[in-house]
Structures are given as C-alpha cells and as structure tokens.
Amino acid sequence: MALMTVVGSNFAFDRYSLDYFSSAMAKRGIHSIELWGIAPHLNLFARDLGAETDRIRACLDQWSLSVRCVTPEQVIYPVNVAASDEQLRAQSIEYFRRAAAVAEHLESPYLFLTSGWGLEDEPKEAAWRRSVSSLTEIVAFAESLGVACLIEPLQRAESNLVNTVADVERMLSEIGKDSVGVTLDTVAASANGDSIGTYLARLGSRIRHIQIVDGTPTGHLAWGDGNLPLDAWMKELAESVVDASLTFEPFGDGRYALNPESVWDKGLPQVRRWL
C-alpha cells in the first residue's frame, strides 16, 4: 500500500500573511508544508536572504510546521532555466541556487524545479539542451547542500519542454541523478494525456510529491469544483506502492484568493479517506 502524507501549501494564500497561513494549516492538523516561494511568504530576491529565511523559520516554528519542499515561483516570475538569453538563464540558475540554500536552512528535503521553456520560434532541441545543462547544475548544487530535487511536468501552455511522462523520463535520464524525483500534478497529467496509471507504471518510486487538483481538465481548482475523477485517482494512488507527500495547488481563476481555507475544507476530508 502507498505511504502518502498530506502536507500543507500556501498556494492561494499569497494575499495573507505567512502567520495566517501557518495558523490555518496547524488548525487542520497539518505538520509539514510545501512552501511556495512567492513574496510576501518567501522573497527569494531579498537582499538579506539569511534574515528572510530566519523570519520564515521563526514563524513556522511557532506553529510547529516543518518544510517538505521549497517551491520557487518559476512561471509568473521572470525565471527561465532554458532561456535563450544567457543573462536571464544565468540569473535563473542563481535564483535556484538561492532557493536551494533556503531549503537547506529550513531543513527541507526537496527543492521543486521545472524545465523552463523555449521560444516557440526556435528549435525545441536547442532549448532542451539549455534546460538539461541548467537543471544538471542546479541539481548538483542542491545535492551538495543535502537537498534533493523534484521535477514537475508542466502543461503545454506553460512549457514546450517537459510535459508528458515520456518527457520527464528523458529529462531524468539526461540529468543522470537517482536523487531527482518527480512531482505528479493531476491537472498537468490530465491536460497532457497521461493517466495516473501511466505515471505509476513508468515512474514508480520516482514519484515523491503529488499535487491533487481538480480541473475541467485544466484550471487548478479545489476538490469538486472541476470534473476530474479525483476519487478514482486517489484509489489508484492508495493501492500503489508510491511513497510521497500530497497537497493541493489551487491557483484557480482567482475565486479562492479571498477564502483560500475553503480549498482545504473541501479537499482535506476527501483525501484523508484514502490515507
């Protein structure tokens, strides 16, 4: 049977303080979190990153929360490890090196990565090579700090590089580090035509983090606000041998911005039935 543990996440809480979010998780019996690296919760552009990390650690300690995964914002922010602009690519690598240092300081076992994206009017393979080079460098640096990395396939509208199970298999092979795991995002999987069964069969123990999200099939919605078969997928996951953390990623369409706790009140009882 699977070993899955629910962890909190601050997605949709970015209009609230870190203390408010931490309190909301602790009150729901959550003990560890995926920390989305977006200001005001985690500002990876802070001049004094040590002070920023100390502030976060003090807040989380107050609510007895640990960090399972540091997830730097890398779609909204001007960050792209596959950028054709070498200055932007170098800045992006440095951004993730800073994130790895934060993960080490917060004693997080994982740093969350994506492939970046290439320009639509350039050869895909050129962007792929830049992505592999950047990710290999970031993975090696994180590993030197005792932090393992996770790679998440993105939807096609977000990236033209790692979208499918086949894509992430190739990326893992080219990076060549067994320590690198995979994040399974149910919306991305559905949008890209991959089933949960395909993820389990082909990636197996490399799946180390799961974002269980509803959609139509996209949208990153709270449980029940879309039409994806989340119950059936949770059954598949629960009957597998996957050992992973599990959380929600409710970006949605802005509907949760003023009441992010509603996402947890909808989804948490549903997920806990399978654990």
Task: Write a concise keyword list for the protein shown above.
single chain; alpha/beta; TIM Barrel; nine-stranded parallel sheet; globular
What does the model show?
This protein is α/β, with parallel strands linked by helices and 275 residues long. The chain has a single domain (3-272), classed as TIM Barrel (Alpha-Beta Barrel). It is 40% helix and 15% strand. It contains nine helices and nine strands. It has helices at 18-27, 49-62, 86-105, 124-144, 165-175, 186-191, 196-203, 230-238, 261-272; strands at 3-6, 8-9, 32-37, 66-72, 110-113, 148-151, 181-185, 207-211, 243-247. A nine-stranded parallel β-sheet has the order 1-9-8-7-6-5-4-3-2. Strand 3 (32-37), helix 2 and strand 4 (66-72) form a beta-alpha-beta unit. Helix 3 packs parallel to helix 4 (124-144). The longest helix has 21 residues, at 124-144. The protein is globular and about 45 Å long. The N and C termini lie close together (10 Å). The model has no long low-confidence stretch (mean pLDDT 97). It holds the Pfam family AP_endonuc_2. It comes from Spelaeicoccus albus. This is Protein FrlC. Residues 25-268 form the Xylose isomerase-like TIM barrel domain. Keywords: Carbohydrate metabolism.
